[in-house]
Amino acid sequence: MHVDIVDLRQFYHTMLGHAAEQSISMALSSLWARLPEERLVGLGYSIPYLDRFRADTERTFAFMPAGQGAVNWPPGERSATALVFDEELPLPDSCVDRVLMVHSLEFAENPRETLKEIWRVLAPGGRLVMVVPNRRGVWARMEHTPFGSGRPYSRGQLTALLRETNFTPGASTEALFFPPSKIRTVLKMHGAFERFGRMLSPVFAGVIVVEAQKRLYQGLPVAVRASRRVFAPVLSPQGVPTTRQGLLPPSTK
């Protein structure tokens, strides 16, 4: 079950959320320094991290799952946000250079189908980065943050899942070595926790950050299937006549 968009946005507006964003952004920068003139899609709730790359990209989109909800982004500009089903992305084949998944894979109804769909929209040589809660970390056990919801993964599980869906796992790193505490003193020391955690106990990090590349020399089986999604209107007009008699002009007799 997805975390609601309101809860995600509120978390990143707290001191704990800001500290988590800084830690994960540092890890992402070690994998992706710049993305000059490339097309980037963020899937899940990735907008706290997309601003770091958006200035260099050709274009950047924020795709948010229907079960989570969406917000307008970037603020004050033309919206680059879309509400999507992660197994049926509204993109043609091989049209995206990079995909960033944050608060996404752990909530996917079918992780393999989601990754196969990402494989479809990635261009040849395209790269994917996933930020996923670490099943050994403390953050996956605390429900007051978004990283404590959904399905956590180990590094071995992520590697196996990527290979099954025709990706080649590449570089990886970790983040969130500080405890998910709301105490200001602890949060002010999060930088020191991050430095020492990387040296002493990377296996217990809060999240695993993995990069993978689209593999081309092996095909994926293609199965023709109808969409399993049912679209229902959220807002229905009220007071509109529905009968033929109500739509006719009044009689002139």
TrEMBL record:
Gene Ontology biological process: methylation
Pfam families per UniProt: Methyltransf_11 (PF08241)
Record's keyword annotation contains Nucleotidyltransferase: no
Leader peptide range in chain numbering: none
Residue ranges constituting the Methyltransferase type domain according to the UniProt record: 87-130
Keywords: Methyltransferase, Transferase
GO molecular function, one term: S-adenosylmethionine-dependent methyltransferase activity
Ranges in a coiled coil: none
Protein name: SAM-dependent methyltransferase
Organism placement in taxonomy: Bacteria, Pseudomonadati, Pseudomonadota, Alphaproteobacteria, Hyphomicrobiales
